[in-house]
Amino acid sequence: MTVHTPLRADDVRRSYARWAGHYDFTFALFGRKYVKKSSIA
Q1: 3-state SS of the chain: helix, strand, coil percent to 5?
Q2: Cα–Cα distances in angstroms (integers) from residue 34 to residues 9, 10, 37, in the given order
Q3: Region for 7 from its dihedrals, namely left if φ exceeds 0, alpha if ψ lies in -120 to 50, beta otherwise
Q4: Whole-model pTM?
């Protein structure tokens, strides 16, 4: 069963503030790995 509840702006802001740093760090690591693999130099 799926329960649909409306998103409140305050909850979204709080969640983003909590996870943004983790997201940036994680994807920066992946990005560096693939940039190195795709570099010609």
Answers
A1: 75, 0, 25
A2: 35, 35, 5
A3: beta
A4: 0.47
Query: What tokens does 19 get?
Result: 């996870």
Q: For residues 5 and 3, what is the distance between their CA atoms, to the nearest angstrom?
A: 6
Tokens encoding 3: 């329960």
Q: What's the pLDDT tens digit per position in 3-17?
A: 888 989 999 999 999
Token pair listed for 27: 């994807």
- CA torsion, ordered 25, 23, 10, 4, to nearest 10 deg: -170
